[in-house]
Design goal:
alpha/beta; five-stranded parallel β-sheet; two-stranded antiparallel sheet; 11 helices
Length: about 350
């Protein structure tokens, strides 16, 4: 016997993992006679959000970026209208495979922060469930092989289906809270990613000489973070690092600038901060407050990053420089750079 007659799933997805979870929930709802409605949050007015049907079970599902929901989902939940619906929180996080053991990713503060905000808005939390689908962040690790990707999809569909049946029957599920200790411990990293890390990653993407200006990356970006500058795709600080552009590029022309980021870090640590602190020390005295130092250092680093990124964007027009960038990018090499798209039509 189902406890709900309606289901609304709010989803954000880059390469398709969260989209698949939303669809698996909808498929199971259909089998149970529950009317479902899937909402891709990038296609709605996120400033004036329509409230959900008061009789519906509401689910939020999004990937984990830096041990939290990405800013687009955080902001959506923050602006979500007040209500009394039962709510389920889900995420997709970096699943890996050792033999047949699926290594779990880390949720961080995603569930804790979202649950707090939604409870204050009047909603009741009925469940929390992470889903360890294949990691798509080939910027930070080698891409997964086809066997691993397929296995993770098949096993996680089974898990999501089982979880959906449990929730649809009116039960609660908070097994995710078993990880609360490690989630709290990595909270500082989540905050660092939100205030600094995501901006750094946003400036690691570039289009190589293989780019034919098809503009698929620009048109397909969920948050409109890519624009055309000097007839070449240019990534702004609005980038969520969802990896959709890299996974969808038909020429595999989008790379991660590992060499560039290493160069910026070295420039910052070896030269710039010495000059900045010396200048400030001469004019304003020595800075003892660590918070002020952190804010100042972060601002200087992001400024250097933005200026340097604009410079390499210009220099990419020169073949020798473009080749240098390509061969200092790990994503260019086969052992690392397998592009990722979530599988579709996984058999029942």
């Amino acid at each position: 016997m189902n406890a709900f007659k309606k289901l609304v799933v709010y989803c954000f997805s880059g390469t398709g993992n969260s989209r698949n979870v939303a669809q698996w929930l909808a498929d199971e709802a259909s089998k149970a006679g529950i009317v479902s409605h899937l909402v891709n949050i990038v296609h709605v007015d996120r400033l004036n959000i329509d409230p959900p049907d008061p009789e519906a079970l509401v689910v939020f599902v999004s990937p984990i970026h830096g041990f939290n929901y990405p800013p687009v989902m955080i902001n959506f939940i923050m602006r979500f209208p007040r209500g009394k619906n039962p709510v389920v929180l889900m995420n997709t996080r970096a699943g890996m495979l050792i033999g047949k053991w699926i290594t779990p990713g880390l949720t961080g503060i995603a569930f804790l922060l979202a649950a707090l905000v939604l409870r204050l808005k009047g909603y009741s939390i009925r469940g929390m469930r992470p889903v360890d689908l294949p990691s798509n962040w080939i910027s930070v690790h080698p891409g997964l092989n086809e066997r691993t990707v397929k296995y993770l999809h098949e096993r996680n569909r089974e898990r999501v289906t089982s979880f959906a049946r449990h929730i649809f029957a009116g039960n609660r599920s908070f097994k995710a809270l078993r990880e609360i200790v490690q989630d709290v411990l990595i909270a500082p990293i989540a905050f660092m990613y939100y205030f600094v890390g995501r901006f750094v990653l946003a400036k690691t993407y570039y289009a190589s000489g293989d780019c034919d200006n098809c503009n698929i990356c620009i048109k397909g970006c969920p948050v409109k973070a890519i624009k055309l500058v000097d007839n070449r795709p240019f990534w702004t600080f609005n980038c969520e690092s969802c990896m959709k552009c890299m996974g969808n590029c038909p020429k595999k022309a989008i790379e991660t600038a590992h060499g560039f980021i290493l160069g910026v870090v070295l420039l910052y640590s070896m030269l710039i901060m010495v000059l900045v602190y010396q200048f400030i020390g001469q004019w304003f005295g020595e800075i003892d407050n660590e918070i002020v130092k952190f804010i100042l250092g972060t601002g200087v680093f992001l400024a250097i990053l933005a200026l340097s990124y604009r410079a390499i964007h210009y220099l990419m027009r020169f073949r020798f420089f473009e080749r240098f960038m390509v061969f200092t990018s790990l994503t260019h090499f086969k052992f690392w750079g397998r592009r990722y798209k979530a599988l579709k039509n996984i058999s029942d």
